[in-house]
Amino acid sequence: MSNEGEATRATALVTGSSSGIGLAIAQRLLDDGWRVVGLDVAPAALAHPRFRANAVDLRDAAATEAAVRAALQAPTPGAGGVQALVHAAGVLRVAPLGALQAQDGHLMWQLHVDALSRIANLVLPAMRDARRGRVVLIGSRVARGMAGRSQYAATKAALVALARSWAAEVVAAGVTVNVVSPAATRTAMLEDPARQGTPLKLPPLGRLIEPAEVAALTAFLLSPEAAAITGQDIQVCGGASL
Q: What residues are paired with 53 via a beta bridge?
């Protein structure tokens, strides 16, 4: 999104916009001129005239769908409509076989997959009808499988399957759907007590991935220049996949 006039700015829906990667993406998009609607259960961490925070628990299906429908109504006269969806909300729960907790798997499935499906079921048809739109799902390199993270990996792998399936449905309308999958990123998730006991392994780059780096790639995938990129899972791994 570039330096278009105030009346033609488009709107991006960003889940998980109050912290970590979601916050970095929301800030980057605001810097690039987008209007941003944040969907997050946590209090807003941004104050900007083009940012609107919707406090919503994405595990609540009815509340989530109501928030999305409200955003799709484009309440700002002359706004360019919802042209982007970024799903960055998520949690991490880790456990080896023998210690898996059903409630942890259910929580991650609700936030990573079920909430996304409900949101996309409203947003993507609108994009298809408008014949424009961009979707980026924040996945994880762990989606390829990692000991002790099977439940988390399964939900992130599901994002890739959803992205490829949806991309095939809307590509002819000029709508793209991609996944950005970072390796270990410098966010509060790394300090989550649920993660303790799992040693942090730095990628060959020698440092953690920065949220701003994930945001920069996401911003590109939402741009007109990325129109030919769809159905892809792009790794931001600092050399970990080499």
A: 38
Share of the chain above pLDDT 90, in %: 79
At residue 207's C-alpha, the angle toward residues 205 and 213, to 5°, is 85
Average pLDDT, the chain: 90
Q: 64: which 2 tokens?
A: 């989530």
CA dihedral of 34, 38, 43, 44, whole degrees rounded to 10: 0
In the 3-class helix/strand/coil scheme, how is 58-96 assigned residue by residue? CCCHHHHHHHHHHHHCCCCCCCCCEEEEEECCCCCCCCC
Q: Which amino acid is at 171?
A: V
Task: Output DSSP code: residue 113.
Answer: I
Beta-bridge partner residues of 234: 180
Q: Phi and psi dihedrals of 5, rounded to 5? A: -65, 160
Catalytic residue check, 152: yes
Task: Convert 86-117 to b/e letters by CB count within 10 Å (16 or more is b).
Answer: bbbbbbbbbbeeeeeeeebbebbebbbbbbbe
CB contact at 8 A, 22 and 212:
no
Q: Which residues lie closer than 8 Å to 194 by C-beta, 6 or more apart?
A: 91, 92, 93, 94, 104
Q: Cα 152 to chain center, whole Å?
A: 15
Length of the chain: 242
As given in the structure block, the two tokens for residue 131 are: 């014949």
Answer yes or no: pTM beyond 0.70. yes
DSSP 47: -
Q: Are 140 and 182 in contact, with CB atoms under 8 Å apart?
A: yes
Average pLDDT of span 40-56:
95
* Residue 43 structure tokens: 């209090």
From 108, 111, 141, 152, the catalytic residue: 152
